[in-house]
Amino acid sequence: MLTTYRQLGRQIDERMLPSESILHYLQNSPEYFGISFSPERFKQFNANGQPIQEYVEKENKYKTVYQQDRPLCFDYQMIREKKLMQKRKHFRSDAEKRCSICRILCIADYQADR
To answer: Cβ(85)–Cβ(77) under 8 Å?
Structure first.
């Protein structure tokens, strides 16, 4: 997640928060449950977004490279409800001020979540 955040920030030439600040923010949010008990396997991706693969000579083929980590766990229902409330507030307060394309997207997004 932090890698994706950094890549997107570089693409739009935006100043990014330090990883420690993001982690602190996430761990202190009300939606945070804690760290999982067991490690999970995650595919590693290169800068182009493709899974990293390494050649295995014994098997004469390429295999995807995985990394083990203990992920953070969140209450996704709570996150969804919070996001929906923010969309409704945004829709009510800013829809008139936005250009027609943004207004259409905002209305469509609001209706999709209803």
So the answer is: no
49, 5 contact by CB (below 8 A):
no
CA distances from 96 to 26, 52, 70, 91, 110 (A): 33, 46, 44, 9, 14
The 10s digit of each residue's pLDDT in 51-94 is 999 999 888 999 999 988 888 888 888 888 887 777 666 655 55
Q: What is the 3-class SS of the chain, one letter each residue?
A: CHHHHHHHHHHCCCCCCCHHHHHHHHHCCCCEEEECCCCEEEECECCCCCECEEEECCCCEEEECEEEECCEEECHHHHHHHHHHHHHHHHHHHCCCCCHHHHHHHHHHHHHHC
Q: Which two tokens stand for residue 110?
A: 């609001």
Q: Which residues contact 108 (CB under 8 A, 6 or more apart)?
A: none
pLDDT at 102 over 90: no
What amino acid occupies position 49?
G
